[in-house]
Amino acid sequence: MIDRITHSAPRWLGMVIAFGLTALxxxxxxxxxxxxxxxxxxxxxxxxxxxxxxxxxxxELRAYYTEEPGFYRYLARLAGLDWGYSYAFLTxxxxxxxxxxxxxxxxxxxxxxVSMFIGFVVGVETAWRRxxxxxxxxxSFMTILEGVPEISTGVIxxxxxxxxxxxxxxxxxxxxxxxxxxxxxxxxxxxxxxxPLATLVIxxxxxxxxxxxxxxxxxxKQAYITTARAKGLPARRVRYAHGARNALLPLVTRFxxxxxxxxxxxxxxxxxxxxxxxxxLLFNAIKARDLPVIQSVAxxxxxxxxxxxxxxEIIYRIIDPRVEYAH
Amino acid sequence: MRIRLGKELFEDRWFTxxxxxxxxxxxxxxxxxxxxxxxxxxxxxxxxxxPTVEHLLGINDGGQDIFSELLYAIxxxxxxxxxxxxVALGLGVFIxxxxxxxxxxxxxxxxxxxxxxxxIPAIMILILTAALxxxxxxxxxxxxxxxxxxxISKTIRAQTLSIREGLHIRAAKQMGGSDWHVIHRHxxxxxxxxxxxGFAAKCRMAMFMEASLxxxxxFDPSRKSIGMMISYAMKYYYLDIxxxxxxxxxxxxxxxIMTVTFLAISLEKVLDPxxxxxxxxxxx
Lengths: 327, 284
Prior knowledge:
heterodimer, A: mainly alpha, disordered N terminus, B: mainly alpha, elongated, disordered C terminus
């Protein structure tokens, strides 16, 4: 094990350096871009107001607002969670960000794990019954489902289950101002989570299913599966202990990348169900042209995804050296 | 060989379904403005009225004909996806071939760059750019392409590496063929199936991204788009408009994404035997 780690150390180091540099470039761009915008705060604030500034006041104000903090100061403030104030909410951006983050993590994390687990199990079971009617039907159904984007699924679920049948709430993550015991509170949160979660699971389940099925179909053809069956092992044991274990790798390898792309889906789904996560925060900020919030949410969440993927890449390399050659 | 490829493809019903839908959407894209009965920016009709014979899908809250709006919206989404897909394909093929053919330091740097780009959520960069500079949609399509090439170039590179040692390539080099000649005449045609697969997959992603961005309100509001129509229609969900205003854009978007998904999946399936080596390596 230790041997393996030291062996792949140079590759790691390359990854860490590349990702670190990317993070720096992204932070620098987020520092630079707003400064390239035309116009300035003083002009936009006072040009159309009742207050007339004297020339001296104007130069002083202008000097105050265009004071350059410098990139190192910017970096230090970023690390110190000092991300400026929201124009629209008049609260520190970090407060807004950290109150929204748990909801996004809850929604995304659950959707990711559920869709992967169901996709894996159903994929393996279907591959085992290859060429049966069930398999063909499932593959067709999943191919069609793969073509339905989460905007459509979300809106349909919302209109059907929240507005017409009224089974689930249409907005929010918990009932506002309700004083609930901890158990009822959890049920309430679960009740609100059902529709957005279902939307995301329906969106990601088909991809996981098709991937698990395809890799399981290749694994089943291997000689060791025939050996295991010839030994008289129970079918379920052959399927999972022998076959599925090896079919799992492509799914796990995609975990990180899928996470990065899931953010897109989460933004839209959160907006449809007004779920108070980062997506809704970002959407409201876009509507209000609240630049500090847009900038921070975009930058920080990208940095987080970058860090997660780097971590996963390193872990894969330790778990399975084959990943290195597959790249 | 081309003819056999086409026949093989049409034997797959997913490809046939995708192809029929693609022809349908291509026709709508090309002739949309001719088919539209009204100017979609004309706001002179009775706002929020139910469909009639003159207005097939009724009128929206701004007094605009929904059917005409939809035709223009489909056009915008398709064009965005096409541009982004084509540019991503071009970049991916060029970079993949360069990395695979020349190897060494060039390869390491390009592939590290690809790894890094894959780890950046493109949507965040697009949102940031759109919010700060409000660029034209074409610019956003190009930026998106800049984030989509890595997966294409990785498959192209892997395939280049395995073909590079082939007899015919070695023979061509032996006869004095230059790098450019060998790449142009032997490698690029041989990788053709990969282009189709890559293009379909990236088109799908770009169209989906366009709908999401429009849905979040990041495009110019006067630019008709499916995502924006859904977003506006949802504001009036309590009125009985869901079947004539909300459903048509949703159905169109789903059909559009389905079209490219079917094509992508069946291309990958049918053209698979030629790419067995790389795919097998990946699957195990």
